[in-house]
Amino acid sequence: MMPEQSRFSKTLFYIAEQAYFLKSFFRNAFKKGFEWEELFRQSYIIGYKSIGIVTLTGFILGIVLTLQSLPTLKEFGAVSYIPSMVSVSIIREIGPVIIALICAGKIASSIGAELGSMNVTEQIEAMEVSGANPVQYLVVTRILACTVMVPLLTIFADAMALIGGFIASKLSVGISMQLYFSKGLTILEYSDVLPAVIKTIFFGFTIGFVGCYKGFTANSGTASVGLAANSAVVNSSILIIIIDAIVVQISNSLFYS
């Protein structure tokens, strides 16, 4: 019984520690002296420097989804439904989740490694000694930057996926641009876009929060920096899947019941 009790106690302590870290974030997010310059810098690092991989991912995603769906749709004589299928699939579900997982691998690991390195080299303690607020400067800015930039990156990736789907459709069945985007965009409804946007906001917050938490709680030693980066990716990816399942269930009960 002792090992099971020990694991249970560690789990409770882990949850309580994250809850305290979350409380610290909200407490410092509304304090005076907010670091706007650092927020903009982090938004540039997180957003602008992730455009390349997001563009490539979205573009290829649209091409692959179109090419994979074409044989089945041709078999049933439903080639005209390609734009609608790609548009709804990408914007409602595939785009937000795939881009969030890509951002978890790139952004969460980067934040975890950066803050973990600062923690190991006692730079965070030095900030506290000098009178600075490390949570407000390091944590709040990064989490808010992720919360803002991940939805914007997802919207950009969705647009690139639609372009990729159009190119694949044009080369495969010769569909015109006007027809493709007319059918692809007119089918979208409020119930398709709103849950997707809400999901990306939660995804961005989760990526930033997990990355900062893992970096701030990294143990002493250089090996803990790699562990912080790795666990940040794994934990944020798992939470993204869980959040997606919850939001899908709630949106289905609200819009499709």
What do the pLDDT scores average to?
88
Question: What's the number of helices?
Answer: 9
Question: Largest beta sheet, briefly?
Answer: none
Assembly type of the chains comes to single chain
Distance between the termini: 45 Å
Shape estimate = elongated
Residue fraction in strands: under 5%
Whole-number tally of structural domains: 1
In helices, the fraction of residues equals over 70%
- The overall strand count is 0
Query: Strand pairing plus helix content: what structural class?
Result: mainly alpha
Describe the structure in your own words.
The chain is mainly α and 257 residues long. It has one domain (35-249). The chain is built from 9 helices and no strands. The model has no long low-confidence stretch (mean pLDDT 88).
